[in-house]
Design a protein that fits this description.
The complex is a heterodimer of chains A (227) and B (241). Chain A is of the alpha/beta class and 227 residues long. Chain A folds into two domains: 133 residues, 3-Layer(aba) Sandwich (Rossmann fold); 68 residues, no CATH class. Chain A is 37% helix and 24% strand. In chain A, the strands form two sheets. Chain A has a six-stranded mixed beta sheet, with helices on both faces. A two-stranded antiparallel sheet of chain A has the order 1-2. Chain B folds into two domains: 147 residues, Rossmann fold, CATH 3.40.50.300; 66 residues, no CATH class. In chain B, 38% of the residues lie in helices and 24% in strands. In chain B, the strands form two sheets. A six-stranded mixed beta sheet of chain B has the order 5-6-7-3-8-9, sandwiched between helices. In chain B, helix 2 runs parallel beside helix 5. The longest helix of chain B is centred in the C-terminal third of the chain and has 18 residues. Chain B is globular, with a radius of gyration of 18 Å. The termini of chain B are far apart. Classes of the chains: A alpha/beta (227), B alpha/beta (241). At the A-B interface, helix 5 and helix 6 of A face helix 6, helix 7 and helix 9 of B.
Chain lengths: 227, 241
């Protein structure tokens, strides 16, 4: 199903932090939402999720911090059952085992509360919860920022396999253009609460049209920094 | 010169550092990379004397490291400051703690190098961005001219553009002041671009210690290769054709 939302906006303390924005994402399309800290990426993600859920579309969300997704007073097992119940899925130990294995969290104790897991493990648990169903859209906000490189790369590979045989669309929110560039076909660049560029990935990388886009491209690679 | 000789740290029944040896000369940069839980932060604690070593020795020019008054730059810049104090008060603490008088020229030069305005220093930690707070964290670390500075994931809270900008400021100040830098990071791109050598820490042991550029081209161990390939896959490093 094509994802469409119009007039998404947000204010904080009387100041517009997201100016009215329209979004359209095709079925199975992978879109990267990039920009510097404070440019409004997560805010746009939240506004989009709220609008889509209000319109009856299914969205899975991996927030930037696992604290947003996990109740500190509930066990990890409770969270997992909740995620299954929300999608009316019967408990399936194989599905859970396969996801946990792929995300290197098979050793986690489901009987403990979130604090019994390291932050990186919590992050991967939230990713696993997001991948149990087949939503119209998967929104991942800096999914690998708390993970070390080997685990992060495995996580992104799992995501590729997950998306390969589904029509689920992906919105990947990240400040890291290098990460987004390899995973998405289309990039949206945000700056000061506005989407200032929306173009195929190759076009943004080869000919960024805005100052924000140029800055991200120039700082994409550690070994080729501009002087 | 920092010298870490056969250091072991045990916590309960498990070893968090095993037989770790390395040395670091003034003006040089060593990046310690490795997975979460490998012992990277414990190594910083051991060097600073905050974590007692079960065996082995850590020294700076043959004396205990604390005698050289090393500095630490922390991962979460805004929570690294007292929220009730202005940033200026926090920055001056290393001087007041040692009874040293502030040198206005040095402060001005550092502020210029780190792009910090007097107006920024008058604010409290909650009133500045993470990137600004981290630059002030670096200012506080360098104000008393330490010969050794430890960085614990100094860039991980910053966005990709700010990371590279801050890394460059650190490198420029290091060229000027000549301190030895021990940087703990999981960002191999940063390590490859700014460190002289890369040490791969895994399960408390140093698996390999290689010059940075050589590591990117040909890691010596399987795990080093996995780390490097993951950095390629994530876009943190670009393969040079």
């Amino acid at each position: 199903m094509t994802i469409t939302a119009t007039g998404l906006s947000a204010c904080r303390a009387g100041r517009a932090i997201l100016h009215p924005t329209d979004m359209q994402i095709g079925p199975g399309e992978c879109v990267g939402l990039v920009g510097s800290s404070g440019s409004g990426k997560s805010t746009l993600g939240h506004a989009l999720i709220d609008a889509l859920r209000a319109g009856g579309q299914s969205v899975a969300h991996v927030p930037q911090s696992p604290d947003e997704a996990l109740d500190p007073l509930r066990s990890m097992g409770f969270h997992w059952r909740e995620a299954e119940r929300a999608l009316s899925l019967a408990p399936d130990p194989d599905r859970q085992g396969a996801l946990f294995e792929a995300l290197h969290i098979a050793g986690g104790d489901l009987g403990t509360r979130p604090w019994g897991w390291s932050r990186g493990m919590q992050q991967r648990f939230v990713i696993a919860m997001a991948l149990i169903g087949t939503p119209d859209l998967l929104v991942m906000d800096e999914p690998t920022s708390a993970l070390d490189p080997v685990v992060a790369a495995d996580t992104m590979d799992l995501l590729d396999r997950y998306l390969a045989d589904r029509s689920t669309a992906l919105l990947l929110i990240t400040h890291d253009l290098g990460l987004a560039a390899r995973r998405v076909q289309r990039l949206m660049v945000m700056d000061a609460g506005r989407v200032v560029e929306d173009a195929p990935t190759a076009q943004v990388l080869s000919a960024p049209a805005t100052a924000a886009g140029r800055s991200l491209c120039a700082h994409r690679n550690w070994l080729e920094l501009p002087c | 010169m920092l010298s870490v000789e056969r250091v072991c740290v045990r916590r309960g029944n498990s070893a968090t550092l095993q037989d770790v040896s390395l040395s670091l000369a003034p003006g040089r940069t060593l990046a310690v990379v490795g997975e979460s839980g490998a012992g990277k932060s414990t190594l910083i604690g051991a060097v600073l004397g905050l974590v007692p070593c079960t065996s082995g020795a850590v020294s700076w020019n043959g004396a205990p490291v604390r005698h050289c008054r090393p500095a630490l730059v922390m991962q979460e810049p805004r929570s690294a400051f007292n929220p009730a104090l202005s940033l200026h008060c926090s920055v001056m603490e290393p001087l007041t703690a040692t009874g040293t008088r502030a040198d206005p020229d040095r402060l001005a030069a550092l502020c210029q190098g780190l792009e910090i305005t007097p107006d920024l220093l008058a604010r409290r930690p909650g009133q500045v961005s993470v990137g600004q707070a981290q630059r002030v964290g670096i200012l506080r670390a360098l104000i008393a001219a330490p010969p050794l500075v430890l960085f614990d994931e100094p860039l991980s809270a910053l966005d990709a553009v700010t990371q590279k900008h801050t890394a460059r400021l650190i490198a420029a100040l290091q060229r000027e002041a000549g301190f030895a830098a021990l940087i703990v990071t999981h960002d191999l791109g940063y390590a490859a671009a700014f460190a002289d050598d890369i040490a791969v820490l895994r399960a408390g042991r140093i698996e390999e210690l290689t010059p940075a550029r050589a590591f990117v081209e040909a890691p010596q161990t399987d795990y080093g290769r996995r780390l490097r390939d993951a950095a390629f896959a994530l876009g943190a490093l670009e393969r040079v054709a």
